[in-house]
Amino acid sequence: MKKKHLCFAALILLFLSCKKGKENPLGPTSFKETAISVNGLNTPPFNNISVNPIIKITFSTALNGTNFASNIIFKDLTNSANVAFTASLENNNTIVINPATNLTGIKAYNITIPTTLKSTSGGSLQTEISFSFNTGIDDIDKFPRITDEELLTKVQEQTFRYFYDFGHPQSGMARERNTSGDIVTSGGTGFGVMAIVTGVHRNFITRAQGLARIQKIVSFLKTADRFHGAYPHWINGSTGTVIPFSQKDNGGDLVETSLLMQGLLTARQYFNGADNAENSLRTDINAIYNTVEWDWYRKNNSNTLYWHWSPNYNWEMNMTITGWNEALITYVMAASSPTHSIPKSVYENGWAQNGTIRNGSSYYGISLPLGPNQGGPLFFSHYSFLGINPFNLSDAYANYEVQNKAHALVNYNYCKTNPKGYYGYSENCWGLTASDISNGYTASSPTNDVGVIAPTAALSSMPYTPVESMKALRFFYYKLGDKLFREYGFVDAFSLHQQWFASSTLAIDQGPIIIMIENHRSKLLWNLFMSCPEVKTGMQKLGFSGPNI
């Protein structure tokens, strides 16, 4: 009997020992995170968060109240600096984090909690927690406030530097973009010449400096590669030889040539002095313009102009220049030529396509006379109208003041309405046109909207939408200036939705900014170009009417 009792006691001790080991064989139990929220958002990505967010991290058990705050690492990912914060416990198992001061807008931040975090029972966090979030726009001015007129001048002067300070050292031509090295652009140089005229007018440089730069450009153009008088899109700024834009685009580009001629004729009208230097400049510009065989680019006398011709591939690019797009200036330059002019029938059949360029639909209550659905990219209303004054200008197809104002307002209202819901689009942040995007280049428009705003779109529309464009300028400069405003003015494009900002500047986007702001302020370039006697004759021949012709 005694033996039986002893065995029973031993069994009890063994059972208790096993039970105790099963409950906690290795010490305190580990735990994990069960939820993360940033300003109420419970699933990543945590984008466009306010600059004073509330961050909550919930765990599967109660936390050690004296240990949790020292295990929080809050970093600014731009510079890896620590961010000051306060932290508290809610319901014993939720850490609540607040930045000590407002964060910076449009920045990436990270919060990490290592496995050294402890529970009340002494258990450790199973797996390190690390997550990031991006702040949205803040309301802090990035630069001191100045008057609107001072701001317009500042933007013009900074943008001017792209063409003057960054002009190619040998040729003086405009580089294609800020990373292009020896690649210079013929059309962009036309914009650059007009920018230099503006720079003289605004006293950014002297008249002698402006004249010297344009003499340098013209001297280079006299010896650069030409194809039946037309320049290629890209030229080597040191040698003057063609750089192919694509395999078969290695010859003349008539549209780029017309943009170049628009600038050269404007400079010819500006430098009107009687001295030998200015007189020689005018003679050289006339010779360059008169050598362009606009009529030859009709391709065997057809009733349209062709964009390209190559000495290796002839007409294989086979791209007719038809409207509505940026190339109205090409037909005006061709009709205005004293030596190789085209008849009105080429304009009517080739450009106007016998009237099919008409639109006539309304968008956002705005009737659009010409062009594609919702107007297309805004450079359609810029490039040709750097020199052509559209105000009170009409032909058989449109009133061009109405056209360009409607185009800009449709673009503005599209961005304001923001049908795709892109973060950042507003009445202050608008403008869709051709530009760099985060993974390439595209012609943005209401029908091709990838969430990227290009400053040139709204700013170059200043003559058409002065109130809306000025709002955009203030927003770009004061609210986003630390991201956008650089050595040569505004960067090419940005996306608040993607939190992407270009590092690039392009001649064809910088040029219209300085030129169209000047046309808004003084009509300088419009007055100069429209004073050309050839242009008046050519536009009258095409059926244009208005007070300037």
From TrEMBL:
Top-level taxonomic group: Bacteria
Protein's recorded name: Uncharacterized protein
Source organism of this protein record: Pedobacter africanus
